[in-house]
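Below sits our specimen:

——
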Amino acid sequence: MATTTLPRAAILKLMFPNGTDVPHLLPADAAKLPDSMIKMLVDSAARTTDMTDILVLHYDEDQLLETYFRLFQFAKDGKYAPLTGRASETYTRPPVTRGTTLQASTESTFASLKEEVKLFVLGMRSGCKALQTRSTKNILHEYPIYAHELVLLIRVLHDAQICPLTDTDGELAKMICERSKLLAKELKTDASCTALMHEIFKPRDRLAIALRGATDSVIDQLLDSLA
């Protein structure tokens, strides 16, 4: 792993195996990212090439390409395309009354949601509040959250040691609770998913935090639906 630190006056360039061009990040734009984010970019590279005014970070795999491409968009413009280049559809999350029957987003939209959740995790791990806010907004309003999508969101956060109920934005935690209750029947069809949901939702104090102001009966209903 590379350990070179980034001179703040240097242009940052990322190189991936497939030759995909990730636009340079100018010093003024790099300065918008916290030092912890810059360190994560450098440390995740396989090697670096220091050209004095340009620091090139080389990656041996394409796994981080989509994530870092959107991070650079965010640093430049404060926003990024919520869907990958493979996606052709943009969605608004359907109202919670939907989802009582088996539904799923398109393959391309699901792939885009996976990238979105990666950005959210990156924002959490680096302490970049602005990126957390942007990715939370996209998850809430740009994607349909059915059972398959909900499990993806919860599992990725859980694997990253981020509690979906207590470590996330209040609105996101509330959505996870609401959708979990509504989609409980579908969620129970997967034994591994059921075990994960029980691990996350069973502690009442977590639900109390996620559902601020909710009565005991509301919390009980959610727990009963996942039992």
Summary: The two ends are 44 Å apart (CA to CA). Residues 107-126 form the longest helix (20 residues). Residues 67 and 118 are 7 Å apart (CA to CA). Strands lie at 11-15, 47-50, 54-58.
